[in-house]
Amino acid sequence: MKNKFYITTAIAYTNGPPHIGHALEFLQVDVLARYHRIMGDDTYFLTGTDEHGATVVKAAEKNGKDVKVFVDEMAEKFKELTRAYNVSNDDFIRTSDQVRHWPAARKIWNLIKDDLYKKNYQGLYCIGHEAFMKKSDLVDGVCPLHKTEPEKIEEENWFFKLTKYKKEVKKKIESGELKIIPETRKQEILNLIDDAEDVSFSRPSKDLKWGIPVPNDETQTMYVWADALTNYISALGYAEENPKFEKYWPADVHLVGKDILRFHAMIWPAMLLSAGLPLPKAIYVHGFITVDGEKMSKTVGNVVDPFEAVKKYSAEVVRYFLLREIPSGDDGDFSYKKLEERYNGDLANGLGNLVQRVATLIENNLDNELIWDKNNLDEIGKKTVEVWFSVTGHTYIRQFELHRSLDKIWEIISGANGYVDERKPWVEAKENPKKFLETMTVLVAMIHHISWLLQPFMPETADKIAKIFGADLSNKEITENYKFIVRKSEGLFPRLK
Ligand code: MSP
């Protein structure tokens, strides 16, 4: 029986085009999804867009566009982002989709109805967060994340009894039944959860029309988070009892940014408990990308356009840079300077050089062909291959430390380049053909291993390397007597001018 693996990204607000932070989140999930597919798991990768709420309406107005037209355009840009970065999502859900999404949001609403009550409420609403904030959350009267003063709101809302479920949710987080990775984020939530209050689950429709009307109460529109969180099950056809829901739910991983952890680790599990549905198994939390050390913001004008980055350097290069440079569970910095340094160092001089050197040596000295035979290795050669094959770094993928997995792969690349320098195969080819064959047998094995490991991170590069050597990446191990046939190729990563 195959395992199933259901993984999701957060769904982005369609209040503007995607930025590089969105690309990072797509890529992190993409690596996990590709890895699980390679492992043979029946994988389902969902992403989408969060299209309701006040922020979105405001952005459409600012752009002088009808909200529907505006969200259609923005959703299209996020779809384009998945294509530009070679992201392997299986599905894309939009919360404005009245056929796929709305029925599920309504169904959940009806199921949790006993835990909803109406009350008059006075609070401070941060539009950037799409959430009420406590006075104690503010710094100098402004939201510390969005740097804006929250709006004072007094209105009648539906409230959800989060307080009723917080103990149970806390227990599940503590026991690891609901895993939160990294550990620091788990502690953060455990510190917050005792103070959690009931949450507003609707806004008066006279103030906010753009959203899902509350079932049986046309005067209210569903709160954008209550609506958005449901995407994780609406996409599986929860409302119409699609077998996909039975098959894939609960999610194995919700991957989200640190700013929205509390919605995923408190409100969403509480909603599911109230509805009698199983909880997701894990929440992986990433940090924020800063740019040249500064917070990315429209006001500062330092927002990195993910489309420009791929146009300049290619999807494979930006994938590599983001996944290696930004520690998966932490904040990290983006700069084109660092990207170019990594390009020259890790890609051109590291991986590209290794592939080029070994391919050329086989081309020039073995007539393009190497039949892989263990018997061509002496004891040291055998041991070398064995040792390198045991280095995989893929355990780090399972721990959501994708950058460390790449560190390991690059250890192998440096090891292989070091081995070439040490053995000097260009001399061996002339003076000792037996030793030369042995060196190439080791190196081809290492390159096969490297490209196999690289697949989730740099799928096109892995394929290109396999093509250059005529290798078969469907097998992790090299089959004895496998015939590698080298084909000439352009350099993988030409040096930047
Ligand atoms: N719509 C909500 C999520 C609803 S999920 C049911 C939302 N949207 S968002 O567009 O603001 O953010 C989408 C994702 O991008 C979030 O996981 C968020 O943390 C992430 N990022 C936003 N800015 C980021 C960076 N600067 N760096 C990395 N990721 C960032 O929140």
From TrEMBL:
Pfam families: Anticodon_3, tRNA-synt_1, tRNA-synt_1g. Residues 398-472 form the Methionyl-tRNA synthetase anticodon-binding domain. It comes from the Bacteria. Keywords: Aminoacyl-tRNA synthetase, ATP-binding, Ligase, Nucleotide-binding, Protein biosynthesis. Residues 2-95 form the Aminoacyl-tRNA synthetase class Ia domain. One of its GO terms (molecular function) is methionine-tRNA ligase activity. It is an enzyme of class 6 (ligase). CDD domains: Anticodon_Ia_Met, MetRS_core. Residues 136-358 form the Methionyl/Leucyl tRNA synthetase domain. Coiled coil: none annotated. GO terms for biological process: methionyl-tRNA aminoacylation. Its EC number is 6.1.1.10. PANTHER family: METHIONINE--TRNA LIGASE, MITOCHONDRIAL, METHIONYL-TRNA SYNTHETASE. NCBIfam families: metG. Is required not only for elongation of protein synthesis but also for the initiation of all mRNA translation through initiator tRNA(fMet) aminoacylation. Belongs to the class-I aminoacyl-tRNA synthetase family. This is Methionine--tRNA ligase. It comes from Candidatus Yanofskybacteria bacterium RIFCSPLOWO2_12_FULL_43_11b. The lineage of its organism: Bacteria, Candidatus Yanofskyibacteriota.
